[in-house]
């Protein structure tokens, strides 16, 4: 067994927040996994039997919880409760004994490839196999814009935006004279995140107007800026065409080929025109986690490490780079995109590959990673969507139904599926979370769900 008890290492440390009991830092583990998102999480759920024994597998993550990021745009507009998409990385109580890995809550800051050690903020951890799946980080606005935009990348970002939207609406219906642009939301970035968020915010304003006792002092506006000439440019043109049509139906103003060049607390400037906007959101994509971007070897423009056909670093076959952080050039599809569909296939493959290696399977008998393109789907508000699934083109309610089904499946949590399904089902009767709704508190929801 590679791991040694803390009594042998002599290290017992507390995390930076000081909110958890002092942690013991193991000397190492046979497999060390960094990150529990789509790729890391599916790797852990598919651990081969030898790695399920105590001390064999260690998860390193700086958080206590995992947030299901694909649905944060629905949290921002109150359609989904934040507790519905938060899950503990290491369950307490009876479930803890069934967890086949140990959690070390700390931040991974580097990798010593020559000596097989992961460097963390509280010490070094040795590994025999290293699974790097820390996810991406936000592409922040340039310095001249950064202080005037909210980013939209985490659950915390979604809650901050929800608070901003709620405050803006309350001011607008309060009867007081408001500054110009008080109910204008400027969203920069026409990728899938920006498109989904723009659709949800526009639908939110429609929802609030129907239920408001007083008319707002100005008309709500949602303006989506995209520097290129197409929304979601890495997808087939069909996505752009349907998205432009559906966003227009919802009242979103789509400005293509338009780069935001300046901003302040009152609005933004683009193409020589000033747009007053109290709420300004930056959704212009992501880049590789610094932990991966600093690794030696080839990287793409976003800093993702280029990996072999077995998803490992070319010169370090015991280091797997999965999900958003690795870029694999498929022989027929080219560079695979950083999507959940790719990540959830890479995690199980890497787990199987490590299992074969532990059994001594010769290298020539370990097949390469083979991606099955299931398609892609984008939500366009509560009632619509657009997607291509296994070659079939979908739009409207059918696409939205598939969208919900896919992400409920991806959750891999009965509790999360139940609560999110309840949120969707009860939205019309109980209202929206954070916008004068009557939905139960987090405590009540946890007790009802039996968690």
Description of the molecule:
Strands 3, 4, 7, 8, 9, 10, 22 and 23 form an eight-stranded mixed sheet that branches. A five-stranded parallel sheet has the order 12-19-13-14-15. 43% of the residues are buried. The protein folds into two domains: 169 residues, 3-Layer(bba) Sandwich (FAD/NAD(P)-binding domain); 215 residues, FAD/NAD(P)-binding domain, CATH 3.50.50. It has 451 residues and is an alpha/beta fold. The N terminus and C terminus are likely disordered. The longest helix is centred in the middle third of the chain and has 20 residues. It contains twelve helices and 29 strands. Strand 17 and strand 18 form a beta hairpin.
Task: Summarize this entry quickly.
The chain has 451 residues and is an alpha/beta fold.
Low-confidence stretches: 1-19, 437-451
Integer count of domains:
2
Known CATH architecture of the largest domain: 3-Layer(bba) Sandwich
Largest sheet: 8 strands, mixed
Task: Set down the secondary structure blueprint.
Blueprint: H1 6-9, E1 12-13, E2 23-24, E3 28-34, H2 38-45, E4 57-61, E5 65-67, H3 72-76, E6 86-88, E7 102-105, E8 108-112, E9 117-120, E10 123-132, E11 136-138, H4 143-146, E12 150-151, H5 155-173, E13 184-188, H6 192-211, E14 221-226, H7 237-250, E15 252-256, E16 260-264, E17 267-270, E18 273-276, E19 279-282, E20 286-288, H8 290-293, E21 305-306, E22 312-313, E23 316-321, E24 326-327, E25 329-330, E26 334-335, H9 340-358, E27 375-379, E28 385-389, E29 392-395, H10 397-411, H11 414-430, H12 442-449
Parallel strand pairs: 3-4, 3-10, 4-7, 10-23, 12-19, 13-14, 13-19, 14-15, 21-24
Antiparallel strand pairs: 1-2, 5-6, 8-9, 9-10, 11-20, 16-17, 17-18, 22-23, 25-26, 27-28, 28-29
Helix pairs in contact: 2-9, 6-7
């Amino acid at each position: 067994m590679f791991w040694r008890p803390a009594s042998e290492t002599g290290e017992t440390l507390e995390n930076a927040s000081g909110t958890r009991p002092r942690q013991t830092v193991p000397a190492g583990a046979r497999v060390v996994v960094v990150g529990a998102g789509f790729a890391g999480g599916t790797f852990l759920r598919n651990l081969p039997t030898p790695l399920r024994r105590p001390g064999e597998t260690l998860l390193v993550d700086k958080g206590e919880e995992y947030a299901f990021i694909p649905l944060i745009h629905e949290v921002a507009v109150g359609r989904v409760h934040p507790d519905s998409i938060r899950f503990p990385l290491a369950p307490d109580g009876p479930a803890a004994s069934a967890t086949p890995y140990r959690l070390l809550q700390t931040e991974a800051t580097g990798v010593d490839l020559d000596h097989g050690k992961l460097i963390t903020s509280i010490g070094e951890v040795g590994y025999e196999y290293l699974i790097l799946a820390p996810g991406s980080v936000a592409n922040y606005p340039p310095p001249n814009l950064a202080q005037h935009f909210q980013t939209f990348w985490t659950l915390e970002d979604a809650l901050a935006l929800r608070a901003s939207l709620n405050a803006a609406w309350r001011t607008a219906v309060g009867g007081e004279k408001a500054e110009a642009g008080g109910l204008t939301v400027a969203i920069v970035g026409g990728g899938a995140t920006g498109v989904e968020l723009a659709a949800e915010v526009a639908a939110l304003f429609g929802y609030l107007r129907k239920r408001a006792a007083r008319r707002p002092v100005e008309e709500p506006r949602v303006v989506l800026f995209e520097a290129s000439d197409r929304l979601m440019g890495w997808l087939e043109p069909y996505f752009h065409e349907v998205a432009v049509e559906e966003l227009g139906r919802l009242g979103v103003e789509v400005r293509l080929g338009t780069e935001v060049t300046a901003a302040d607390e009152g609005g933004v400037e683009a193409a020589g025109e000033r747009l007053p906007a109290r709420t300004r959101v930056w959704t212009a994509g992501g880049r590789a986690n610094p932990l991966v971007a600093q690794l030696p070897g080839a990287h793409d423009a976003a800093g993702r490490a280029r990996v072999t056909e077995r998803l490992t670093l070319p010169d370090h076959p015991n280091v797997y780079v999965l999900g958003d952080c690795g870029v694999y050039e498929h022989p027929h599809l080219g560079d695979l995109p950083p999507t959940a569909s790719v990540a959830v296939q890479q995690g199980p493959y890497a787990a199987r590959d490590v299992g074969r290696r532990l059994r001594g399977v010769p290298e020539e008998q370990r097949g390469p990673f083979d991606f099955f393109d299931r398609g892609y789907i984008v939500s366009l508000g509560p009632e619509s969507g657009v997607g291509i699934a296994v070659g079939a083109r979908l739009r409207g309610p059918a696409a939205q139904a598939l969208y919900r089904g896919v992400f409920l499946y991806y959750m891999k949590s009965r509790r999360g599926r139940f609560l999110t399904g309840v949120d969707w089902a009860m939205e019309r009767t109980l209202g929206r979370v954070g916008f004068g709704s009557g939905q139960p508190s987090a405590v009540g929801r946890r007790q009802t769900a039996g968690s």
